[in-house]
TrEMBL record:
<dbReference type="InterPro" id="IPR036412">
    <property type="entry name" value="HAD-like_sf"/>
</dbReference>
<protein>
    <submittedName>
        <fullName>Pyrimidine 5-nucleotidase protein</fullName>
    </submittedName>
</protein>
<dbReference type="InterPro" id="IPR010237">
    <property type="entry name" value="Pyr-5-nucltdase"/>
</dbReference>
<dbReference type="InterPro" id="IPR006439">
    <property type="entry name" value="HAD-SF_hydro_IA"/>
</dbReference>
<dbReference type="InterPro" id="IPR023214">
    <property type="entry name" value="HAD_sf"/>
</dbReference>
<dbReference type="Pfam" id="PF00702">
    <property type="entry name" value="Hydrolase"/>
</dbReference>
Amino acid sequence: MDSCNKSTRDSSPFDCLLFDLDETLYSAKIGIGEATKRNIDDFLVQECGFQETQTKILRVELFKTYGSSLAGLRALGYDIDADDYHSFVHGRLPYDSIKPDAQLRNLLRTINQRKIIFTNSDRIHATKALDRLGIRDCFEQIICFETMNPNLAKSTRPDEFPVVLKPSLDAFRIAIDVAEIDPRRTLFLDDSIRNVAAGKAVGLRTALVGKSIKIKEADFVLETVNSLAQAIPEIWLGEGQRMTRTRSQMDPILATAPIGA
Ligand SMILES: [Mg+2]
């Protein structure tokens, strides 16, 4: 795994790894996702005037129908500035709970293929979280909210430019175009089942991270991103080397992985 020469890259099935960020590159257990939900609920009360008792149901419905609360609120006619929303929802997150991950950093540094972040989060949050993890310099590019929504700031009414986010296929098309990748030779890793399913629909190779359930749209399932080498050794496959494990041989290993990330 240490010899990352050109022949290794030539024979791996992947030219590029496209990583989701939140709860893919760090564990859901540290509570950032829960804190984000609480902040969204506060935003719905303080900035949009909803009753506290309505927020949870509303947030879940907006997420299911529109991909995010911001996308849903704008689609419904609420003129909410994306930067204001992100600074409210992400600005007060407990970033101290995201700790440097030296193991992940070392793992990423053994991967010679292109590595790109593909997140629905805004750029400020993405860079903060990557800096906290100590892995920002492991990625050549961050495809984020601003990349998918370049015209939002120019809109004259909230529903003029619908917010584009994963799992919409448009979001994936933008990422593939911006990153100039061949989806058939790109491994997409995400903790969201619906994002993984959308990735598969646009022709990406897919890995579901942080789960132990198997879904048909996921080519691989990883308990945590730190088990990448065990779950997908093909990433490091070198020229002249033979696959040491087939998928069927790996299935029992994956099936016995403990639940949770
Ligand atoms: Mg995620």
